[in-house]
Every structure is written in structure tokens, then in C-alpha cells.
Design a protein that fits this description.
heterodimer, A: alpha/beta, nine-stranded mixed sheet, 6 helices, globular, B: seven-stranded antiparallel sheet, 21 helices, about 35% helix, FAD-bd_PCMH (chain B), EC 1.1.99.39 (chain B), oxidoreductase (chain B), flavoprotein (chain B)
Chain lengths: ~250, ~600
Amino acid sequence: MKIMVAIKRVVDYAVKIRIKSDKSGVDTTNVKMSMNPFCEIALEEALRIKEAGLASEVVAVSMGPTQCVDTLRTGLAMGADRGIHVDAPSPLYPLMVAKLLKALVHLEKPGLLILGKQAIDDDCNQTGQMVAALLNWPQGTFASKLVLDKEKNSATVDREVDGGLETLSLDLPAVITTDLRLNQPRYATLPNIMKAKSKPIKKMSLAELNVELRSDLEVVQVTAPPVRKAGVILSSVDELVDKLKNEAHVI
Amino acid sequence: MENHKLAAAIAYRLLNQTKHSSNKIIHQRLLIPNFTQLNPLSSTSVAYLFALIQFVGFTRHYASVPLKRFLASYRWDLQKSSLIRMQSISAIHHRKFGSVASAVVQRNPNFSTINNDDLIYFEKILGAKKVIQDHEELETANTDWMHKYKGSSKLMLQPENTRELSQILEYCNSRRLAIVPQGGNTGLVGGSVPVFDEVIISTRRMNNIISFDQVSGVLVCEAGCILENLISFLDKKGFIMPLDLGAKGSCQIGGNISTNAGGLRLVRYGSLHGTVLGLEAVLANGSVIDMLGTLRKDNTGYDLKHLFIGSEGSLGIITKVSILTPPKLSSVNIAFLACEDYISCQKLLFQAKRRLGEILSAFEFLDSQAMNLVLHHLDGVRNPLPSSIYNFYVLIETTGSKESNDKATLEAFLLHAMESGLVSDGALAQDFSQASSFWHIREGIPEALMKAGAVYKYDLSLPVEKMYDLVEEIRTRVGTAANVVGYGHLGDGNLHLNVSAPQYDDAILSQIEPFVYEWTSRHRGSISAEHGLGLMKAEKIYYSKSSETVQLMASIKKLLDPNGILNPYKVIPSSLDVHMKSQPTICKLPWSTF
């Protein structure tokens, strides 16, 4: 069985981001970019399944400008077998990504498609669900535990939902999106980095996949949340009551 | 009730009349429970008994010494109506940590003790808020980070600016009150805490950033600024501090400079002697020496700031600092590598300096014992190379301006190292969180050692080829009694040798000292690479410096601090300290010249 993992190149989660002066988006020049943490967890899960002998190959896919290849290389260094880079201009919104993934799935025919539950730059949490609908495949989102059953060709997924944990059984092929507690991603070790240099990354264009770039979304403005005002130390209860009444209009 | 009070008064009078025989002994107060609350009758009888014994002892001059000492060790506290036992201990160490080689220090009788007039004066200068006598705050300030040294100071002052500090020092000098300058209190050689009852002068309120020049990168700030705060401030401006150490959350820049702290980035940015452009310091007599230049080059006269850098507060208190900060470069990469033996680590260093060249910013090593300790005692730490146990681990960090170039250079270097067998395995951090987890392993070793029990800590500069030989020799000497751990800044030739034992034990200590100092001295190393001498190594300076050099140091100390009030008993051996012996006045008689 082949496993396909979708990974996204985002601003490193530890970076303090700044908004561009024209409010059109986040300033990404000269800022460290790395793989989306949830995508790392997705890739780690795929590698574990492969190491357990339940899958034959792990294919990492990424969409975007040429720098995505760096992120794919990291994925290969972690242990993926092949990479596919879809050359597309950014920004790519979830529906577009879902359509591209659908085309890739028809091409590669994997038994399992694993993604991160959301990307940390847009926090959409939509791609996994959309692609499952487009493919008409069952979906197990916010997975915190994944167990595959080869004979029954199904997967048991523990989902982290608001009420607690929900356990689902899905027939394969299926779409899984990963949550934080699923696993802890491995480090890219030197022998694997060495091997990754010889692993192929196939480049594909939008035309080859027969997908048209069309977006129904437009980012109008990006602003930073208002700066928290400093607290004021008051000297007496009367002053507090006065401020609550006259300034905050709470009482 | 009246009887009891009378008895108490008599007891107090008689007991307190006996002059305590010597000023030199340190007191440790053990408060005996307040008898009066329990049983008035018994306390009365006790008071009577004591009054009687004291009377006997008073009149009978020939009372035996043990009896005298026994009686003299009790005091009646009139306020609390309870007996206080004054216990004299001749050793200074708190945790029954006796160093076989260390001399027993005695309180210098020339120093005064604080009285009420002093307190009134300090409160007038500083205000009541900055004069600390609270027991709990003093407890913390009296104890060092390792809980190895504890003083008995009764007073802490927290001046807010140079003028206040200058006034305090002038007064203390005139009154001959010994003082200890204290910053973040993270020192590891007992240099930041009082030995006896020295007044603690804390710089923690002097924490303003005065100015920052965006073009040249020169930062001017007060000595009490915490290093991590400076790092965050500079981060927003696109610069970094030239030094970085594990204690950054608590240590203050004044303390870093007065101890000439090294840290993790010395291999790239050099020592503080190079990066500090200017200082403002206050001498013992209160005079303010303004050497706060911000110029990169200034060859006008003797460069006196270098005297204060590394003097550990014994020549003057640093109040303001002007430091050159390097620009923050965007591409930081870090690799965690495993080596089979120490020779490979050395060869790796040689290769790294050549192939990584200008982008190398840190080169640290740790042995397998250190790794096991960290994995065992710290939470949230995982081994980046779990597949096998390796003998040595090396952490290499590169900092450069172009991500793609640096990553390619580092990868090429690492691949070459693997192919030539220098490195058995390694991991490359892919993002910031992985990078900080690598650093956490290396920076967490001191903390893990503290959690493991008692630790004997040594900080030595040695030729790189010989460094690990010492660790192995100590390991053979100590045997199974303790865990010997070696780690350090391999890039600077600095070994942190730590012996971890379940408890402090003189038998273990005798196997380590003075062997470790003699070995270092024989190989022309330094017995204190970056931690300083403080109290722990004050007598050991001769292992690394000649006696003429030390004599010159003593002369400089006498010149800048004639009364010896600044951080006494530390840095320079006490036998040299001319203030310890009283100078006889020589009367020049007319015929003595013949």
C-alpha cells in the first residue's frame, strides 16, 4: 500500500511574525521557514506505518513556489521515499489544494492520505475534509491514535473532539488528518540526509494535473491584534469603583 | 509573674556581662523554644540556675574553660524571654562540605559590624524600601545558587543609581564595613554571597537600558540589567548579545563583566575583554570612575576598564556598561553529532574550524555520562540519536547571513565527517523548536547535576588534546564512589569537570583535590577557565599564576581598596592581604639611621 502525505512550507512556529506595512499579509522576507508542525506529525505517522510493514512506500507532496523543494528535502531526510512538487503560485487556498490533491491521488492511487489537521499560517482546518468529500473517501480528522488492520483493510482512528475522544472505524482508502498528540516527529539524521540526496522529487505543473487555478477567496486586510494596554495600579477602592463606573462602564 | 521577670532580668544581666571571648568566631543562632509560654515555673528555675552558675563563674576566675565556654555560649534574649544558644563554627561551609585543601577563613577583626546609626544613614540615603532586613529575602541573598555557600549578612542594600551607590560605598569605607556586590547570584565559586556578615549591595534596581545605537550596535545600559532582557531588547532591533550562557534568565550584565563570563558563543564573538567598550565603576571610597566610552578605538592612556573586567567585584563595583553587539544573522543551523572517541571530537573541531570557518558559532561537547544524567533528571528531553549509546556527543552551531549557503556548507561538512568516520551518527535541526531542544540538552547539564545530588565542580582550561585524559584519570581515582562527568566548550579548550556523588564525602574529595589542580598546573592550564576564583579557589591562584604576578595583584588591590572592604576573603589569597595583619608603627628615632 502506498501512503501519500501532504506537507506545507510555513513560517517557523517559533518566529515572531510581523505584519507588512501595507496590511496585505505577514512579512515573510528573511524569515525562517520550515515544515508545518502538523505535517511533520503526519509524515512521522506514515513512516511508522511503513516501518511496521503495513505500507510499501511513502510519497511526500507539496504545492507552491520553488522553495517548497527545501521542505520536501526535509521530508525525504526524515525517511519519505519520493517527493512530488506541484509548481503553483502562492497563496493557495484550501479548496485549490484539495483539488490538486484529488488529481494526485488519481495519479498515484495511495491507500491512505495523511495530512496535518491545519496549517499554522492560515489555521484553516479545511483541506483534509474537502479532499475527502471530493474523493468520496471516509475521513478521520484530529487523529490522536491510528491503528491499521491489513486483513479487514480498515483503520481505527481515535479522534480528539470537544467532548473527549471518539473512536471511528474507516474502510480504506481513507483521509486522515493528524493532531498534536499522535506522535513525536523524529529528527532528520545524517545517514538519512545523505540518502535523501539521491531520492527523486518529481515536478509537476497545474496543466499536467488538469486543474485550473481559481480562487473564490480574497484576502482584504491583515492586521495585528490590538496591543494590550498596560495595567494601572490604583490606590484605593473608591478609585476602582470610579474607574469601573466612568471609564469601563461596567457598573 | 513578677518573680519570673526578676529572674529573667538577673539572668540577662549576668549572662550578658561575660564578654564573648573572641570576635572571630561565626555565630549560628539556634533558638531554643520559648520556655515561658510552656511552663513559667520551669523557666524561672532555669533562669535562677543560670544566674547562679554565671555568678559562680563570674567570681571564680579560675572556672574551667569548658564551663566558661558552655556558659558563654548561652544568651538570654530579653525580648523573646528565651534562651539562645550561640554556636560557633569554625568552618564556613554550610553543607558540611569540607575541602581538604581549603584553609579555614576567619572574620577580619578590622571590619566593623552594623549598628543602628548605619541603618539610619542608609535609610536616609536610600529610603526604607531599598534597605532590606527581611529574614526571608536575606536567606536567599545569603545563599549561592549551588546551596554550597551561606553567609550571615543582616543587611542588603539596593541602590537605584550610581549616586546612591557612591554614597553608600563612601560611608561603608569610612566605617570599615565590608560589602559584597551581588548581581544575579548565579556564580559557581561562592563569590557572590557574603562569607560572614558583609553588607550585600545588590544592583538589581539598576536595570535601565540607557541607549542603543542602531548603526554601530553599541548598547549602553546599567549593570543590573538581566542578560535575557537585553537579548530580547536587542532581538527586536536585529542584534544579539555577544555572550550567551545557561544562567541568562537570572544573571546580570554587571556580574557577567566582573567575572569575565565566557559562555557558549565565545568561540565566535570573543571574550568580554574585546566586546566591552566602556565601563563606569565605583571605587571603595565612593569615587565614580567614568570610563563609559562607546568608541571602538581609543588609545588614550592606560585602558583601566580591563582591570575591572574579571576582578570579581574586588576592585570596584561596575555600574554602567557599554558593549558592542553583533548583528543578528538570520541563518542559524545546529547539528547534534555522535563520536566514538575523544580523538574524533578533536579532529572534528579541527575540520569544523576549516570547513565551517566564519559561520561556526558554537562547538560544545559532552560525554555519555552527561547525556545519561540529562535524560534521566530533566523532563521533556529526548535523545536525538536514540538508536545507540555513543561515547561522546558534539553540538555544532553555525550562524550566517544566507540560509541556503549555510545549510549546504554545514551538510557538506557533516557528510564529509561521516564518510571519514569522524562522526558515527548525527541529527540536523529542521526548525527552531528542534534547535532549542538540542541546546536544552547541553544547557541543562548543570541543572541535572544539581538534581543528582552532591556535585564537585571544576572549570579548567586545558590543551584540547589532553582534556579528556584528566576526566579519565579522575574517573579511575574515584572509582565506583561517584559519577565523573565531562563536558564543556571544546571550541575554547574549556572543560567542565563534575564529580557527582550521592552526598558530599571527604574521601571522594581527597581523591580529586589537589590532584586536579596539580594536573592542570603541570599541563600549564588554568584552574578556573571562566567561573573565576571567588571563595572556592581563592587560595589556589598559585596553581596558575606566579607569585610575583599575584604580589602585583595584591598591590593593585591595596591601591584601589586600602581598607579591603570590597568582597573580602575572595580572589586573592588571604595570606597576602596586608589588612589581615596590623602594621606596627615604627617610630623613627634620630639615632636609628646609623
